[in-house]
From TrEMBL:
GO terms for cellular component: cytosol. The keyword Transmembrane helix does not apply. Its EC number is 6.3.2.6. This is Phosphoribosylaminoimidazole-succinocarboxamide synthase. Pathway: Purine metabolism; IMP biosynthesis via de novo pathway; 5-amino-1-(5-phospho-D-ribosyl)imidazole-4-carboxamide from 5-amino-1-(5-phospho-D-ribosyl)imidazole-4-carboxylate: step 1/2. One of its GO terms (molecular function) is ATP binding. The keyword Protease does not apply.
Length: 254
């Protein structure tokens, strides 16, 4: 295979040109960052696990009619995706108070929200991804009102489906971040789910013990970060007993 041309390197992933026009290869790194890049580290095996977990969740979502960018997994760390024009918003869905919502509004972490909340953050690292309202989004042209409705609708459907899926394996879906993009087919534009869904982008708590099984273990130096990601994969039924090294693929050696 010829060397792929790199399109973008982010904090957790690298994008390469795909084999056909309109496709990209998404490579998952072990690098982890938190607090807008102020804390940096690596979580051994994270890339392999997130590639798998995101593949699994996007495939399940696709089966229930949520359009996603996921095409197929290529190997341990790479997946083929549809190239989209990313809408510069982080769409966050919350079911339980945690993270910035708990801090900003003084709500105790772990408080069940009476209903799920959808929030929008402007994707801009220099500004620290600020919370924005629909007014800001339409005023600055990041998305139009119809697109905002579609984002909300998709985000809530994804939340319903994933909340149930995780509940079934003893995990509470506390909150999660989604990215969407515009995808053109012939002359029609569709909004599809992009980026990743993984313990990097979601808060997952064990239902019985409330133990954190996500990137908060890294953010707060709670230890056993890779083990927590592995446990999520194991419960999803996508991790062979021996750990990530047991998953057959061309790039087992890192
Ligand atoms: N299907 C897609 N088409 C085009 N770009 C995508 C697609 N899916 C995800 N992306 C973008 O690819 C990048 C993935 O890299 P990574 O998550 O490491 O970025 P990041 O460091 O979080 O930076 P950013 O602030 O740009 O998200 C992100 O910028 C994301 O928006
Ligand atoms: Mg990202």
């Amino acid at each position: 295979m010829t060397r792929r041309r790199q399109v973008y390197e982010g904090k957790a992933k690298v994008l390469f040109e795909g084999p056909e026009p309109g496709t990209l290869v998404q490579y998952f790194k072990d690098d982890a960052t938190a607090f807008n890049n102020k804390k940096k580290g690596t979580i051994t095996g994270k890339g392999v696990l997130n590639n798998r977990i995101s593949e699994y969740l996007m495939t399940r979502l696709g089966e229930v009619g949520i359009p996603t960018h996921f095409v197929r997994r290529l190997n341990m760390r790479e997946q083929l995706i549809k190239e989209v024009e990313i809408i510069p918003l982080e769409v966050v869905v919350r079911n339980v108070a945690a993270g910035s919502l708990a801090t900003r509004l003084g709500v105790a972490e772990g408080t069940m929200l009476p209903r799920s909340i959808v929030e929008f953050y402007y994707k801009n690292d220099e500004l620290g991804d600020p919370l924005v309202s629909e007014e800001h989004i339409t005023c600055f042209g990041w998305a139009n009102p119809q697109e905002i409705d579609e984002l909300m609708h998709l985000a809530l459907r994804i939340n319903d489906f994933l909340s149930g899926l995780f509940l079934g394996i003893g995990i509470r879906l506390v909150d999660f971040k989604l990215e969407f993009g515009r995808w053109w087919q012939n002359d029609e534009m569709r909004i599809i789910l992009a980026d990743e869904i993984s313990p990097d982008s979601a808060r997952l708590w064990d239902l019985k013990t409330n133990e954190k099984m996500d990137k908060d273990r890294f953010r707060r130096d709670l230890g056993n970060v890779a083990e927590a990601y592995q446990e999520v994969a194991r419960r999803l039924g996508i991790l062979p007993e021996g750990g990530p090294r047991d998953i057959k693929g061309p790039d087992t050696m890192q």
